[in-house]
Amino acid sequence: MNFLELMQKRRSVRSFKGDQIPQEKIDKILECVRLAPSAGNIQSFRIKLITDKETKEKLVKASFGQSFIAEAPLIIAFLALPSEAKRHYGERGEKLYSIQDATIALYTAHLAADEFGLGSCWVGAFNDGQVCEELKVDSKKYIPVGFLPIGFPEEEPKKKHRKELGEMIIE
Known about the structure:
This protein is an alpha+beta fold. The protein contains seven helices and four strands; from the N terminus they run ααβααβαβαβα. It has a four-stranded antiparallel sheet, sandwiched between helices. It is globular and about 45 Å long.
């Protein structure tokens, strides 16, 4: 599959089979995350892998009841590390580049999951403080940018309408 085909095929998956993900697939996704572009190649983000049911259920509560999250065998949380970007780029690194780095890494994992026969859905609606608490990370050090529930899709989501290119280009 080429990149355009991957983009055309990609969907947000919110229903997962209970099957465990082979470690080989997880390792490939994580390698893609490691190789994701970042500002100045600083990689001012960190990830946390969640597989235990209790933490998944707590993330459901922190994400305003998005129950599909707990169905996924794996959740990868993406956390910006502003202090790392600030050392190199000052305020712009702290407030923007670290967020962008985590965002790019998350989207890379989203595409990689699809490439390796898995489904995922970007989750960005949550209470930041509650997520930090449930993940046991310092909310003064990290900013939760999103998390990605990953698993084998229960069904293939329907294709959604996308804007025409002409609607997106500003002249």
